[in-house]
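Recap slide: Glycerol-3-phosphate dehydrogenase, sequence and predicted structure.
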Amino acid sequence: MSPDTTEYDLIVVGGGVNGTGIAMDAAGRGLKVMLCEMNDLASATSSSSSKLIHGGLRYLEHYEFKLVRQALAERESLLRNAPHIMWPMRFRLPYQSHLRPAWMIRTGLFLYDHLAKRELLKGSNSIQFNGNSPLVSEIKKGFEYSDGWVDDARLVVLTAKGAQEKGADVRTRTRCSRAERDGKHWNVTLTDQLTGEETRLRAKAMVNATGPWVSSLFKDTLNIPAPKQIRMVKGSHIVVPKIHNEPEAYILQNADERIIFVIPYEDDFSLVGTTDVDYEGDPKKAVISKEETEYLIGIVNDYFKNKLTPSDVVWSYSGVRPLMDDEGGDAQKASRDYSFEVDGGKNNAPLISVFGGKITTYRKLAEAATDRICGFFPEAGDRWTRTAALPGGNFLSQDDLLNEFKIEFPWLPSGLAHRYVRTYGTRTRTMLEGCESMDEMGKHFGANLYAREIDYLADHEWARDAEDVVWRRTKLGLRLTAGELSGIQDYLDHRSQAPAHEVAHSA
């Protein structure tokens, strides 16, 4: 490497929730950090979850008390740090005596209420279902408890933004194509996935947070044996027109001991999932199977009066979860906990590899990983993320912020203002700076998506194509036609090629 090669303290490979979490934490402790992601942020597992901040009620059956306790404690921190993209949600568990006895459910909910301190979330209780219930008439009673909702992809993007604002260099569409240890440094080659251009840099430490690719990165990029393999489990979800009009989510038991969530989604839809199927092959090519669709629909139809057919599915997605697999057995019983493998140190540049994990504990995982990294950097600062608001999350309640926007932007339609609060929080002010009417929002692309918002996402949140905008930065893909999507892509293509002054003029 040439003498003028850029040098970093830490390079993080992988732009999912764990990689961005580590990058943000490490940058906030004073390390010079670079994060690279071969595709878009949250383009794989981290945007394919059930969108829940939860302790994992069903994990109690597998005796994962430590994981559940940690996740329950993290719910409170996350809900405080990102009130724009997370909020409390009540869950209803219809009682079926032949599946789990009532005493077992009560015991589980008692533990769920008391394993960790609760301040924001209500405790559990028993409920009765009457004739107005959306459930079939045979189901008369059940239970309620609290967990949280999260926009998973936005969580990743905002965490990456937080890392950038702490000084991290964040590069999307950038593949770590080669990394070689040279004594106390890693010599790294990055490849721009769009242009093919290569960049070389040096780093004192490296993190492999590539999720389903964590083991294969050793072979393909590092040219060293992987310390362990992960178990790839595919989870699939379907989105259908909303099954009921209640604000609560439902957790449905099934005879195979699995549970399925039915969650209110984007106002007009219900999100149904997830499956657990062992998976082999390229994680990017994972798609829902006909059998998985029928499985999810069958369980919903067993419980709800409103019956579904495959034609009701308006969207589906599948993600491959990289789970630790120490004991084998059913995919649903593979642990959602995480572990680190540390290679090197002293006279060899360290490599920290992340195996497993779940969204709810991402901050805790990142903190623990950064602690290990900072063992090699004695000058690094202290832990700081537990009470740190994510970008746009520096407010107390969505209702309060919405009322502020009504005064600041009286010309903004209430529905659009509500979406902005739940997407950008206080960063809405940055997006709308200098704008005084809807006419100044620029071209309308459908579903209340305007050029002003697309420009903001391209300039501030690494959006490069239509899919980035309508599926990961927002969920407007549920409401846009193919022609409208094409128009968004054309606008982004023109924007990337046009001089800056023309882009500003077109908006």
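The chain has three domains: 6-45+154-230+335-387, 87-148+232-323, 398-506.
Residues 398-506 form a domain with the Helicase, Ruva Protein; domain 3 fold (CATH 1.10.8.870).
(End of recap.)
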